[in-house]
Amino acid sequence: MSFTSLSAVSSTDYKKAMRHLAGTPCVITASHHGQRSGLTATSVTSVTIDPAELLVCINQSTSAWPLIEKSGHFGVNVLSYEQQAVAERFAGIGGFKGDQRYEGAEWVEHNGIWLLAEAPAALVCKVAEIIVRHSHAMVLATVEHVQLRDSTDPALLYWQGQFLPVSAV
Fold it and tell me: What pTM value is reported for the model?
């Protein structure tokens, strides 16, 4: 089924509207044949519990995208507020690219996927399906491994273009 838009929405207005959606920033890690990269994404969501599957939307222009597409695997690292600097590095703030984004934090390799050692939750994912829509790829993935850490650190939130702490109420 196909739908046609009656009027085009400006990208500026759309971005402003989407900034009202608070998101949980996650660092997506990718590697293939010794090359590493990654990105910060707020478009990560659980799809099913059994089997464990999630969905992540990734801009195809990122340096991590070809690595995910070729390897068929990636990591999802859920961050605490104390890990804001990691989110910023993987978002490209400061001009960091590729392997440079991994500097300044402790990482653990699990079957070729890099997980943030101190992340409250980190997952190893295997690509199940890719749906390309304009600039982005919607990646449906099966979770193959979960790394959990007991943490009472405030969660990291992204809202209105800034990182904020979220404490349990």
Answer: 0.93
